[in-house]
Amino acid sequence: PVIALRVCLGHELLARLDGFGEAPPSQAAAAGRLRGELHRKLGGCWLRLAKSARAAGNTESAGNALAQARLHDSTLATVQCAEMDWAAGRAHDALSRLRQQCAKLETDAQGALAESLLLLARLTGEAGEREAAEVQRMHVRVTELRPTWEDGHFWLGSFHDRQLRLALDAASRDQVEVPAKTPGAMSCPSKRIVGGKEKARKKFDAHAAHLGPIIRSYGQALRRGSMHAPSALPRVVTLWLDYADQLARVEAGELPAAEAQHNVRAPEDAMAELIKGLPLRSWLPCVAQLVSRTCHRHQRTRDMLLLLLSRLLAEYPQQLVWAVMPVALAKVSERKQTGEKIVTAAKQRLLGTPILEVLRSSHKLIEQLRKVCNDEAIDKAIKKVSLKTRWPALHRMTNLSLVVPLYSNLTPAEVDGGGAAGSPFSPNAPTIASWGDSVEVMGSLQRPKKVAILGSDGVKYDFLCKPKDDLRKDARMMDFMTTVNRLLQKSSNCRRRRLAVQCYAVTPIDTECGLIEWVPHMVQLRSVIKGYWDVLKMGFSHSAIKARYNPVAQQQGSRRRQGLAELIRQLMGELPPVLQHWFVEKFGEPSSWFEARLAFTRSMALMSMIGFAVGLGDRHLENILIHSTSGSIMHVDFACLFDQGLNLATPEQVPFRLTQNLVHAMGMSGAEGVFQRVSELALEQLRENREALLNVLSTMRHDPLVEWRRRNAKEDASGRSNSEEAEKELAKIDLKLRGVLQAHGTMPLSVQGQVQHLINDATNIYNLSQMYVWWMPWC
Fold it and tell me: What is the pTM of this model?
């Protein structure tokens, strides 16, 4: 509406200018400049309308807007026309249109030429119509025409990145063709087997040849803006650290050396320059990635990591102590030594400043919090204990300068304008003033404790001190979902639907304990549904269901399968859906009821796709919470990640929870309306940004989980070597985000086809009947 209003005003001003007739000679130049500026502004407005229409899938309106834009600014309109031709499958028309425009603009506007040439280079590369060298020259020319343009440098880096992928694919082949030497047999080349050492050398050569240009180009883009930072910077860090690992193996003689023409030090030199030139705040989203590699086997890389992390810790000590200090207190000696070096270097930078006390007090605080988490001496009958009496040392730690470890306090704001301006964290973030005396001991098996922190803002913040659980998985999931939220905001379709995951802070303070932020106004779905069963006097009895289930479960083959399916159908009828009553009761106004139901359906769809991608299991009704004021849902307990549900005593058969209460609460269309459409939009974003999301999870390759070390004795707890288990799990996620459902074959599916298969699997009565009985598949 705003853009349409501007168009109307622009046309009205042009009409009035024309109505004045020919301007006097003294005013002709000014009138001409005004007309030109109005035409340029109107062209820009029409282009924005066309872009909005295209994003909404309204190609007819987009075409009409572009026709209007051509009347005012034909240059940029041609670029969007080419994009529409390409999206419609008219590749030849798109490329022809762009080539003609580039030829026309060669001696004209350099800025417009750069935009047209960049799109031409990208589409030519995708179509494969020119040699890689020619496409590269086009990308380089764009950066020469507009040296300060972020997009030009980013897409040049993306081009080099694609060449690296192609080279790595070629290096991974098991066989290569050998040209025949006998005259007359040239058309029938022979093949030879490629050995492991030769493959490794070829991969190292590919990295040595391409990684330097990748880092330099992405680095130039990062210095000029932040639009591509969420994908570019984690990718740069991943490539650099993996290459340095190969370089260490070459220097140790474990891998053959690279070919002579490659400068093996160039990538590291480019990275050192980037670390020196990029503002510190730009590195904050990569802190988890950097911390996981602090024990890197290559000495120069390790030194660069330690320098960067110590600078970050000294610059943002109140927030980063929660991520870095646990490393200095690690049980693995090598990680502990490295963490201590980082903290010591940060302290030296802070000498003589009052903020130095943050690092000193954080060490003691984390030690005390570990004691609270791991205290197993509390009698099972006790539900509440006194913090002052049981953990007096922690109770005495007051008026600390550390921020309360909330998600909003620990998550940096997105970088803008190249990352130099503004603070990434709120200057008014509450710090730890004191501790609540009453500590609630939860009744679950691990006996976690609910601790209250009183903030400097006078607000009480609750946290769960959870023992005997490797919360690094939960922390990486929060990183993953934070990245997903940022990607969703870049999509107009997702932004318009306000798609976002509810995140909360997970702070591991050891390999098997940590703090979890307690999110207010959240209610377990199980308590909501069970409450309505009680009110409506529905006969739900554990013993009765178990008595009916056990005889059927003991049968074999098809009789067991059919019997369990029939039992689940009976239970669905006896315990019909009731969740919809909660929405009616909580949201009395029709408009608020509709908004709450919509928020519920959208959040269910989004988390279902994320859960499918990362293999999230154990989605019983206590692990799904619903917000009592908005209706959106939130998942907790990410212990069962990476398809571990398949390894349970009763293997899980559904990709996510989509049982009758959830489907019925979505309204008349059930899973086939809003849920399916939002699932498609969410999965589309996950698939389009596959590399960026895998980079977030790649930290687990060098920060192996406890459970992986238990099932594979070769896992290196220090993180010096790649985790074999992590490589397997990341490969499975990669397949899913390529559209492959292994249960349905090896061919990639479309987004729509993949979502439909997943919904069918999640609601299939035979799949539901094979679930663990107290997962409550009938509910």
Answer: 0.84
First-to-last CA distance in the chain? 45
Whether the per-residue pLDDT at 703 is higher than 90: the answer is no
Helix (H) / strand (E) containing 626? strand 624-627
Counting residues of the chain whose pLDDT is more than 90, the rounded percentage is 41
- Tell me the C-alpha distance between 119 and 529, whole Å: 54
Describe the chain by its helix, strand, coil percentages, rounded to 5: 60, 5, 30
Short-list 194, 129, 139, CA closest to 161: 139
Residues in the chain: 779
Beta-carbon contacts of 497 under 8 Å, excluding residues fewer than 6 positions away, are: 602, 678, 681
Model confidence pLDDT, tens digit, residues 654-690:
999 999 999 999 998 989 999 999 999 999 999 998 8
State the average pLDDT over residues 328-339: 86
Q: What is the pLDDT of residue 57?
A: 66
SS3 691: helix
CA distance 322 to 332: 18
Q: 695 to each of 204, 286, 594, 748, 750, how far by Cα in Å?
A: 20, 10, 38, 22, 23
Q: Which runs of E-coded beta strand occur in 469-549?
A: 506-510, 513-517, 522-524
* pLDDT in the model for residue 665: 94
DSSP 195-246: PHHHHHHHHHHHHHHHHHHHHHHHHHHHHH-STTHHHHHHHHHHHHHHHHHH
Q: Which residue is it, tokens 């997962």?
A: 775
Sign, CA torsion 562/563/566/571: negative
Three-class SS state of 420:
coil
